[in-house]
Amino acid sequence: MRRIRCMIPPAAAQLGWFGIFCWGLFTSSLSLLANPQDAPAADREDQDAASPQSPNIVLVMADDQGWGETSYNHHPRLKTPNLDQMAAAGARFDRFYAGAPVCSPTRASVLTGRSNRRTGVESHGYALRLQERTLPQALQAAGYSTGHFGKWHLNGLRGPGVPILSSDSHHPGNFGFDHWLSVTNFFDRNPLLSRDGRIEDFRGDSSEIVVEEALQFIAGQAARKRPSFTVIWFGSPHSPFVALDADTEPFMDLNETSRNHYGELVALDRSIGRLRAELRSLGIERETLVWYCSDNGGLPKITPETVGGLRGFKGQLYEGGVRVPAIVEWPSHIEPTRIAKFPACVMDMVPTLVELVGAQADSLLGVQDGTSLWPILRGATERRNKVIPFSYQDEFAIIDNEFKLLQLGKASKHYELYNLEQDPGESEDLFEANPSIARRMLVDMQAWQTSLNRSLSGLDYPEQSVNAENPEPSRWETQERYQPYLKSWGQRPEYQSVLNGRD
Ligand SMILES: [Ca+2]
């Protein structure tokens, strides 16, 4: 169903009052004209492309799936028929970047549109600042029901995933999710999850469990004619590697770790098939945008390798640590089998979706690092006009279309420059050989670091300071609020490495 809603100019702050007045005349004349059934088909299509809509939105993210771990990207052993079908039915990004080379930072970037260190999430296990404004909050204000399913990892707790308690100051409900079935960190077969703070015990593969629960949420909202925003963050193929026996059969000649890692990806792919099939049987696939990606690059010590020949792995700013699979499917609006070479990143999700639904332009913090991918999803081919910035553990990188500048090393920093189109494996450092590009990108790097320093001083927030109450990363088993659970959880396989030896 298509509807005309109040349109917000995408950059109201830059238009000035005269611009807003003109925009108002434009939108009111549009609404006077706007019976879409009266318009010729081509015009209707143009209106669909440009005007705010309320599709259901489903963001799906794997945990540690590397760039090379799909069969559409020619993995030598792994078959991902459902991701392949999704890619064939929608737009596939072949240069899509995580926010950082580890998990929590990318999650913060997905929800805020901001590079991770601006948000307080320096590395894994850091808490997202409550001062941040999030996409689910913006979508709530735009009339959406919002739900989170799976791994959270934005509440400052480290260690294997445990149910998030209702007393947690940083649970998903405090960042804009109406409903949540979530766990602090990675989770595996037969998990304990927390439904809005109440602990529930599940049986089965973790990916399939969260997809079934998410589908119930989506179907329930569809029955109420309410648009839904659903976040599904898998625990796979992150360690511990525990796959169903049947899913490991194609990999019996691999070592136990690799066999189970790839087995988890088989189940993850199957859950994508289940999600897509059920959206179709509910009859809502044309009104539902599904955006799939991974949270960081591939893991080392897995065979065959996980990064599709790129340099580096999870934890590094080289391509293997940050470039990830990404697919966007929306059958009524994105033509099939679109392959985008445009360099895109998780920070682009917020501006893309905010533009799409016409959410309030001021519903998010003003300092944003992404750009709307809506033109690219509609088939435009253009150069990116904004660098993709990274900051992780005292190291920095920026990507400007084909070029990437890295600032590596802690005590003695040094720079490396690569042309990613000619040299995707980052084998030939051009920093000395191409001084004019190097100089230009050093200016951009300086601008990125200056902007980041303003964020670190709290200047992005209305308070102009950082609230010091944000929790430092800690392990859940040391927290007072988790003590009542430790005895019974000690029997569970996923917690034995943490709780063994305790009373
Ligand atoms: Ca991860």
TrEMBL record:
<dbReference type="InterPro" id="IPR000917">
    <property type="entry name" value="Sulfatase_N"/>
</dbReference>
<dbReference type="InterPro" id="IPR017850">
    <property type="entry name" value="Alkaline_phosphatase_core_sf"/>
</dbReference>
<dbReference type="GO" id="GO:0046872">
    <property type="term" value="F:metal ion binding"/>
</dbReference>
<dbReference type="InterPro" id="IPR050738">
    <property type="entry name" value="Sulfatase"/>
</dbReference>
<dbReference type="GO" id="GO:0004065">
    <property type="term" value="F:arylsulfatase activity"/>
</dbReference>
<feature type="domain" description="Sulfatase N-terminal">
    <location>
        <begin position="55"/>
        <end position="358"/>
    </location>
</feature>
<keyword id="KW-0378">Hydrolase</keyword>
<protein>
    <submittedName>
        <fullName>Arylsulfatase</fullName>
        <ecNumber>3.1.6.1</ecNumber>
    </submittedName>
</protein>
<keyword id="KW-0479">Metal-binding</keyword>
<keyword id="KW-0106">Calcium</keyword>
<comment type="similarity">
    <text>Belongs to the sulfatase family.</text>
</comment>
<dbReference type="Pfam" id="PF00884">
    <property type="entry name" value="Sulfatase"/>
</dbReference>
<dbReference type="InterPro" id="IPR024607">
    <property type="entry name" value="Sulfatase_CS"/>
</dbReference>
